[in-house]
């Protein structure tokens, strides 16, 4: 048996499951709505948020300088905005997308999805606001994680949220600090959408893909091992702070890195 085959056999079962689950099926989607125009709005190409929000980020940075904020202060506020996004991402994912749905809700929705006939919309089969909100907001991604048109947030959701957060920042930070901070916050959102899409769907091969796989492994654990851990997608920071990060897996990952480094050193010597 070759070394590569032996490594495959010895690979932990959960890791093999996660690796296989990253490969998208041929038809990784479901019809959500009865009306065609609503269904079209629910499917978003991954480039659309960048087309919408990069001009907004540039405008807000320019406005910050125009209002008299120095370039250094503008950059610092933008960095703080990116950090604020990581916190908002964690809170939304953990307490809105998951905590609002009970385990029974998730099981019921899963059964209803798998009982659908081809091209049958799922929303009419769901009962109550909790089932419908959970599936539209997040459940569809958990049931069809490789759907390329439902990996980024649709503008029908992201634009109202952007207006809400901008208003909140204006009320708390004032008109001079908000533009740069909001630019960083939106940049954090774009990093989240990009990294989320890359984790699920980009396969560059070689060492690049291996590095991407390791960076996104926490999100894969969230999908396929325990959806009550690893809520951070663009950053594991808040999972580490509040204790929802898989420390055992982190330790194993560190051990693998150390072994790989020692092996490279031996080969050089």
Topology:
Layout: H1 3-10, H2 13-21, H3 36-41, H4 48-66, H5 71-98, H6 103-114, H7 128-143, H8 155-173, H9 178-201, H10 206-215, H11 217-224, H12 237-242, H13 247-268
Helix pairs in contact: 4-9, 5-9, 6-7, 8-9
Can you tell me about this structure?
By secondary structure, the chain is mainly α. The chain folds into 2 domains: 29-202, no CATH class; 213-269, no CATH class. It has 13 helices and no strands. The chain is globular. The model is unreliable at 1-13 and 16-27 (pLDDT under 50).
Q: How helical, in percent, are the residues?
A: 55-70%
Shape: globular
Q: Could you spell the SSE succession in H and E letters? A: HHHHHHHHHHHHH
Query: Main β-sheet: number of strands, strand sense, barrel status?
Result: none
Structural class: mainly alpha
Mean pLDDT over all positions: 79
Number of domains: 2
Count of strand segments: 0
- Using the CA coordinates, give the radius of gyration: 21 Å
Tally of helical segments: 13
Low-pLDDT runs of 5+ residues are 1-13, 16-27
Distance between the termini: 27 Å
Strand content: under 5%
